[in-house]
Amino acid sequence: MESYVPLLVGWIGVFAPCALGAVGSIIGCTRGGQAAVGAALELEGGYGRYIGVSAMPSSQSIYGIVVTYMMNDMGVTYYSGPGLFGVGVLTGIALMTSAMMQGSCCASSINVSKSKPEVFGLSIAPAAIVEGFAVFVLIFALLVIRDVPTEAAAPTPDPTVVEAGEMDDIDAVDPEETPEPIEEPAPVE
């Protein structure tokens, strides 16, 4: 009976970046959004920029969609399933974690800049750094996906191993016999 486990884990790996990236974006945007709504209650105006900051973690779900699309384009086979699982799940976990942490950075940025508006640009820097790591994950995943095997690799024969019966075709060589020297061609004028 053929095992369907490689196919199952392959499909889990294909959709993991999209699903886990979206979960992280949901949590991150919720954290940032709660801080933005709190700022709107406390300030008389100028809180629209906080709504924009609270949406920063949504980019990880877009990165997850891109990785899922590229992996799905490859196709899931018996041989590619385990590789797609590894790349997909680890990419999804990294995107999810990055979105959640970025949401925390955005919430901190909103909280500090509502009391001290002049540090708004500087306070977003930690969220931008976390975004950079999400981009690194995206690029790395796209590079690694290319190396996931889609079919069985043909075994390469070991030249040092001689199978039984292969020696029958080889002419016997006398170790006492010296080979004739090779003549060099005459120079062309």
Describe the protein.
The structure is a single chain. The chain is mostly helical and 189 residues long. It has one domain (5-145): Four Helix Bundle (Hemerythrin (Met), subunit A) (Up-down Bundle), CATH 1.20.120.610. Helices cover 64% and strands 0% of the residues.
Low-confidence stretches: none
CATH superfamily: lithium bound rotor ring of v- atpase
CATH architecture label: Up-down Bundle
Briefly, what CATH class?
Mainly Alpha
Q: How much of the polypeptide forms β-strand, as a percent range?
A: under 5%
Backbone CA Rg: 30 Å
User: What is the count of β-strands?
Assistant: 0
> Structural class of the secondary structure composition?
mainly alpha
Q: Helix segment count?
A: 6
Overall 3D form: elongated
CATH topology: Four Helix Bundle (Hemerythrin (Met), subunit A)
Amount of helix: 55-70%
Termini, distance in Å?
Answer: 73 Å
Main β-sheet description: none
How many structural domains can be distinguished in the coordinates?
1
Characteristic terms for this protein:
6 helices, mainly alpha, Four Helix Bundle (Hemerythrin (Met), subunit A), 189 residues
